[in-house]
Amino acid sequence: VSGLPSRATAIRGAQAALVDAKRQLEEALALADKQAEELEQEEAARRLEQAKLDAEEELRARLREAEDRLADEKATRMREAETKLDKAIAERLKEAEKRLRPEVEARVEEARQSAEARARTAIDNAGPRLRAVAAACLEAAAEHAKEAHAKLEKLRARAAAGGGEDGERPKSDNEAEKSSSGSSSGSSHSRSRSRSPPPPPPPPP
C-alpha cells in the first residue's frame, strides 16, 4: 500500500511531463511553421525582387531594340524623303528650264539682231558722211589748184607782153620768179588750209 502513492505520483508526473512535452512540441511546431513561413516569405520577396530586376532588364533591352528600330526606320524614311525631294526639285528645275529656255533664247536672239541692226545702221550712216567729207576735200583742193594755175598763166602772159599797154615796167626774171613764188606759196598755203580735214563727224547713235 505504501508504494501506491509513489506510483500514482509517478504516473501524474509522467502525465504532466507528457503534457509539457506535447506543449513544447506544439510550440516547436508552431515556431517551425512560423520560421518556415518567414523563410517562404523572404524567398518569395527575393524571387519577386529578382523577377522585378529581370523584368526591368528585359524592358530596357526591348526599349533599346525599339529605339534602334525607330532610328533605323527614321534614317530610312529620311533618306527616302531626301531622295523624293531631290527628285522633285530636279523635275521642277527641268520643267522651269524647259519653260524658260525658249524665252531666254528668243531674248538672246533679239539682242543679237538688235546689235547687228545698230551696227549696220551705224556703218550705213557713217559711210555717206565720210564719202561726202572726202568729196568736199577733193573739190576744194581741185578749186585751189585751178586758181593757182590761172594766176600762174596770168603772170606768164604779163611777162610775155613786156608790161602791156599801160606803160608798166616789165618785170625782170627775178621779180617774175618772186611773184610766181609768192603766188605759188599763197596758193600752197591756201591748199594746205583747204585740205586740212574737217572735224570728225559725230559718232553714230
Automatic annotation (TrEMBL):
Protein name per Swiss-Prot or TrEMBL: Uncharacterized protein
Keyword Flavoprotein carried by entry: no
Region spans: Disordered: 141-205
Bias (Pro residues): 196-205
Biased composition range(s): Basic and acidic residues: 141-156, 166-178
Native species: Alexandrium catenella (Red tide dinoflagellate)
Alphabetically ordered keywords of this record: Coiled coil
Coiled-coil intervals: 11-98
Extent of Low complexity compositional bias: 179-189
Domain of life, source organism: Eukaryota
